[in-house]
Specification:
- The structure is a single chain.
- By secondary structure, the protein is α/β, with parallel strands linked by helices.
- It has nine helices and ten strands.
- The chain has one domain (about 1-240): Rossmann fold.
- The chain has a six-stranded mixed β-sheet with strand order 6-7-8-3-9-10, with helices on both faces.
- Helix 2 (about 85-100) runs parallel beside helix 4 and helix 3 (about 105-110) runs antiparallel to helix 4.
- The radius of gyration is 19 Å and the shape is globular.
- Helices cover about 40% and strands about 25% of the residues.
């Protein structure tokens, strides 16, 4: 279970996240928002990668406790590794950092994603292949909380479907997934609940079922609740 309460993240005088509160347990919780809404800062706070005020708790462990990192698997929007390292070397390095001796899960994931280029430097690999490496790193220690930030970037159809099935398995095993994306159709299909943030604050929460029952698309709901619908109309009017 992920608990975020009164979360505030500041960068100098700029408040990126402002009193954000939400919970996710045994589900795929989607965090949506415009660019600059505070999604990445929220994820960084959950990862204890930036200073923050408020409280973060992951399956009963305080977010500032070093042990929390063993409970979290994270696939970032932009994959950044040491370019001259090989996937095999990075996996072994991260396993050593985590004190993980059994690499059976990592090996199974490499085979599942057909990652045969484990002995090639990262700079020679495609975006999709690098994304697969990030997924393996996020999953190889069997985390309770999986954070996916635009994790489907660059994946081929097979790999995207495989990741979706992995997400389903994560929930069935009692885990939780925090999912951030700009692809509304993907959010509608994958998420149990949806939290929309804007200017660092939670605007509203909803579910795909609730939207369907109202005959409303997530895209339209997102635009109206973030105030972007009127901006879109003005932009389109200017193009006439």
């Amino acid at each position: 279970m992920l608990k975020v309460k009164a979360l505030k993240v500041r960068y100098g005088d700029i408040v990126a996240v402002n009193e954000l509160t939400f919970e996710a347990a045994g589900e795929v919780y989607c965090l949506l928002g415009p660019n600059g809404a505070g999604k990445t800062s929220t994820v960084k706070a959950i990862m204890d990668a930036v200073p923050y005020e408020g409280k973060v708790e992951v399956y009963g462990v305080d977010g500032r406790d070093p042990r929390v990192k063993d409970l979290i698997g994270y696939v970032p929007e932009q994959v950044s590794f040491f370019e001259y390292m090989k996937p095999k070397e990075i996996i072994e390095f991260m396993a050593a950092m985590r004190g993980l001796r059994d690499l059976t899960t990592a090996q199974k994931l490499l085979e599942a994603f057909n990652l045969s280029q484990v002995d090639q430097p990262l700079y020679t690999l495609s975006m999709g292949t690098r994304q697969k490496v990030a997924i393996v790193l996020a999953l190889m220690h069997s985390p309770k909380l999986l954070i996916l930030d635009e994790a489907f970037n660059g994946l081929d159809v097979f790999s995207a479907k495989l990741l979706k099935e992995i997400v389903i398995g994560q929930i069935r095993s009692g885990g939780t997934v925090l999912f951030s994306t700009h692809v509304m159709e993907l959010a509608e299909k994958m998420c149990s609940r949806i939290g929309i943030i804007n200017k660092g604050m939670l605007v509203t929460e909803t579910t795909p079922n609730a939207l369907r029952s109202q005959g409303e698309s997530l895209e339209d709901f997102f635009l109206s609740t973030t105030g972007l619908e009127e901006s879109l109309k003005e932009v389109l009017k200017g193009l006439e």
